[in-house]
Specification:
heterodimer; A: mainly beta; Immunoglobulin-like; six-stranded mixed sheet; five-stranded antiparallel sheet; B: mainly beta
Chain lengths: ~110, ~110
């Protein structure tokens, strides 16, 4: 099945810093989502972005489907940004299930 | 309600007992997913329902696990003869279309003693 790799696995930032999280996938996708799992465990949708670029406040995401990667940018980080960021994809032409990466754990001090 | 609703939010059970977890998806959403998340781990796919199609059960870890979706809406995940390794948070998600944006509930935390 499709493989999803996220990097870095852990990231520690000072408040106000910027960061880039990466998601690589091993095959063509027709669905890609970024989620933030807060410290209480709730999964919050950030972006539905199978291709292109989107922005929402301090967050933006870019997916280059032909190169099989997606990037999540966090600018001017805040302590409330702490948590785990997951990338998840659906393999085009394959199973319709959403396959998750192992996540990037972000700590903003 | 406006979001995906799951119950119970917490369940503690003894090894060997059966448990049922319920998911009420967002109204009108045709696709429904169950995932499992063990402590500190990523999300493991369990089962997927889409409309009247046969469910994708490829992620169910053993025959002790089963799920049904009645009337294309509410879903129940049943775990028979629970084991300690079944302890995890069970997450349900729904989507308005076959391959679309997923919306997750808050999960059911299962602890097997």
């Amino acid at each position: 099945g499709i493989q999803v790799e996220q990097s870095p696995p852990d990231l520690i930032l000072q408040e106000g810093a910027n960061s880039t999280l990466r998601c690589n996938f091993s095959d063509s996708v027709n669905n890609l989502q970024w989620f933030h799992q807060n410290p209480w465990g709730q999964l919050i949708n950030l972006f539905y972005i199978p291709s292109g670029t989107k922005q929402n406040g301090r967050l933006s995401a870019t997916t280059v489907a032909t190169e099989r990667y997606s990037l999540l940018y966090i600018s001017s980080s805040q302590t409330t940004d702490s948590g785990v960021y997951f990338c998840a994809v659906t393999n085009q032409g394959g199973s319709e299930k959403l396959v998750f990466g192992k996540g990037t754990k972000l700590t903003v001090n | 309600g406006a979001g995906v609703s799951q119950s119970p939010s917490n369940k503690v059970t003894e090894k060997g007992k059966d448990v049922e977890l319920r998911c009420d998806p967002i109204s009108g959403h045709t696709a429904l997913y169950w995932y499992r998340q063990s402590l500190g781990q990523g999300l493991e796919f369990l089962i997927y329902f889409q409309g009247n199609s046969a469910p994708d059960k490829s992620g169910l870890p053993s025959d002790r696990f089963s799920a049904e979706r009645t009337g294309g809406s509410v879903s129940t995940l049943t775990i028979q003869r629970t084991q300690q390794e079944d302890s995890a948070v069970y997450l349900c998600a729904s989507s308005p279309v076959t391959v679309g944006e997923l919306f997750f509930g808050e999960g059911s935390r299962l602890t097997v003693l």
